[in-house]
Design goal:
alpha+beta, D-Maltodextrin-Binding Protein, domain 2, 2 domains, 6-stranded mixed β-sheet, 4-stranded mixed β-sheet, 14 strands
């Protein structure tokens, strides 16, 4: 009996109910289609994934494929094997001019531009996006109608006006709007204004070396957010970031609007059903006084091992193409509200009538497609976003700074100037590690997410799902 060729795939367990079951089912199905291969999927801790991978590699174990959260892109780019060679290789270079692998069609040209661009640096797509999100605005239609509001707000001034209208509703909600104190919304606010977090075009022209958390774009956002809070319109639940608390406020009609991740669509729809109201959805609002240049994206991507045996690489690339076929991508979208990241999957969903039945599900794909070439300062496409070390640590710094502004009345500029210094120390420590060889896997600065940090891909715990939005209810 001929032995099978193993393809080891390591992924961060996003904690969705059934998340790893689907991964294992996909591995089994691919192995059935291509019986000469055996795909072995291993779920690992989301918070410590980069560090855990590095430790395993240092001990002589390495996967053919690994799925990193986008905050860890710089860590993945800096990862090395014990011999000092890069741990990962470019997907586009490995694919070359091939059109198929083991009969599985190459689908790189079919990727949604926003998600393709995020993982592309210098014209080279290092990793293949696997799930994608952006930020959306969710509204309680009946509460807005009571306030005399007929259109969802598209700009910050619109939001302020809607909040003022909601505040005048007799026996209305205690607040008009809420969102989690999380760095993803800071990134969105900067992106829509064409702002950067770091130098060197957000770390894409060269390694990021300088943080700026007190830029004009940042302070414009912070001041507006704080103004809503001071006026009694914004509900600050007080947690870091308290996704569950803001979701519950929306479900219980304590607010008329909640801003959240696009992968929250299923949960938000169910929350509206439990609350007995109609959900309306629109895009993340932008600054009226700055040219609108589109929304940023988030998600995960698959990294291909460097120096793999030829037959292992062939199988790994075939598995990548297969997991991105229209049926698999469309099902991933249905299950978890992730954007359909290929045109073929979007077309399949459209042809099935999915978007007619769930029109808000098309919004992420359609809106991001409208701004594929939009540019910010220095001509950077904003969908590309920032790439730098200890991204999660900087997120932690930002949300704590904003918490001090909202809850303790800290001066916004002073507090975010202080935050810039804190973030700079984190970036300096990471860069010192990355540029100092040999690197010790256990010492990656900021490789583990902070305790208070919770991601925007799978923001709820299993208990949250039971207490706030019962699954499949």
């Amino acid at each position: 009996m001929t032995s099978k060729i193993d393809i080891d795939v390591w992924v961060a367990d996003l904690n969705f109910p059934g998340w790893m079951d689907r991964w294992h089912a996909q591995a089994a199905e691919f192995s059935r289609i291509h019986p000469e291969y055996r795909v072995n999927v291993r779920g690992m801790n989301f918070f410590s994934f980069p560090e855990d991978v590095a430790k395993e590699v240092a001990e002589g174990r390495r996967p053919a494929l690994a799925e990193y959260y986008f905050y860890a892109n710089q860590v993945a780019r800096d990862a090395v094997a014990p011999d000092g060679s890069p741990l990962w290789t470019s997907v586009t270079k490995a694919v070359g001019d091939r059109t198929e692998f083991l009969g599985e069609p190459v689908m790189l040209d079919d990727l949604h531009p926003a998600f393709r661009d995020y993982y592309t640096v210098g014209g080279d797509m290092d990793s293949l996006p696997s799930v994608g999100t952006t930020s959306l605005l969710f509204a309680n239609r009946e509460l807005l109608e009571k306030a005399g509001v007929s259109e969802l707000p598209r700009t910050w001034d619109d939001v302020t006006s809607v909040c003022e209208a909601v505040s005048r509703v007799q026996d209305g909600p205690s607040h008009a709007i809420t969102w989690s104190n999380h760095g993803t919304f800071v990134q969105q606010a900067l992106a829509t204004q064409g702002g950067f977090l770091t130098d060197n075009r957000n770390g894409r022209d060269a390694r990021a070396t300088t943080m700026d958390l007190a830029s004009k774009e940042m302070m414009t956002w912070v001041e507006w957010w704080n103004g809503l809070h001071k006026a009694g319109h914004y509900l600050y639940t007080g947690g870091y970031p308290d996704w569950a608390g803001t979701l519950q406020a929306y479900r219980d009609a304590h607010v008329a609007i909640r801003i959240s991740s696009s992968n929250d669509v299923n949960y938000m729809a169910h929350a509206a059903k439990l609350g007995g109201f109609t959900m309306d959805v629109d895009v993340f609002p932008h600054n009226d006084n700055s040219p609108y240049v589109g929304n940023a994206v988030a998600g995960t991507s698959m990294w291909l091992g460097n120096n793999l045996d030829e037959d292992v690489q062939e199988g790994a690339l075939a598995f990548l193409m297969w997991m991105h076929n229209p049926v698999n991508v469309a099902q991933r979208h249905k299950d978890n509200s992730f954007a359909p990241i290929t045109k073929a999957s979007y077309d399949l969903l459209k042809d099935e009538g999915w978007f007619e039945q769930h029109p808000y599900h098309a919004l992420t794909y359609d809106h991001l497609l409208a701004f594929p070439a939009s540019t910010g300062k220095s001509g950077i496409p904003l969908s590309e976003g920032a790439v730098f070390g200890d991204f999660a640590g900087v997120q932690d710094v930002m949300v704590h700074a904003m918490g001090d502004v909202l809850a303790r009345g800290a001066d916004p500029f002073d507090r975010f100037t202080q935050a810039t210094g804190e973030a700079q120390k984190l970036l300096d420590a990471y860069n010192h590690w990355a540029l100092n060889t040999p690197r010790k896997a256990a010492d990656i600065p900021g490789s583990s997410h902070r305790v208070e940090f919770w991601n925007d891909v799978a923001p709820y715990t299993a208990q949250d799902m039971e207490n706030v939005v019962p699954l499949n209810g």
